[in-house]
Write a structure and sequence with these properties.
By secondary structure, this protein is of the alpha+beta class. It has two helices and nine strands, in the order E-E-E-H-E-E-E-E-E-E-H.
């Protein structure tokens, strides 16, 4: 699976401002969704766990039910068929110092 990280836009199939029901349709196609008890509807955070890789997306929805944040957590299975990229750089497999320098060389500000 290829996951493009697009700052201020989203990640993978999820886009900021996406309605809750639309995001959940995409989430169900990807894997199992978990949330805290009683949080079947926003507000809340919803983890979308891809089955074999232990790679979650965490989706945040405030009261109005539109997606405001997408978190990616590094997969636990090292040879997982997942490529999370930002501007063509693999953010989880590239060593940190190398990733930062390549991002800066590409003109991105890294704090």
């Amino acid at each position: 699976m290829d996951v493009d990280i697009l700052p201020h836009i989203g990640a993978g199939p999820f886009r900021h401002g996406m309605p809750f029901d639309e995001a959940m349709e995409s989430a169900h196609r990807l894997g199992r969704i978990s949330h805290r008890p009683g949080a079947e509807r926003p507000p809340g955070m919803y983890a979308v766990n891809l089955d074999d890789s232990a790679f979650p997306f965490v989706l945040s929805f405030p009261q109005d039910g539109t997606l405001t944040a997408v978190e990616l957590w590094r997969f636990r299975v090292e040879d997982a068929d997942i490529n999370a990229t930002f501007d063509g750089l693999d953010v989880f497999r590239t060593p940190g110092e190398q990733l930062v320098s390549q991002m800066e060389e590409s003109g991105h500000s890294v704090a």
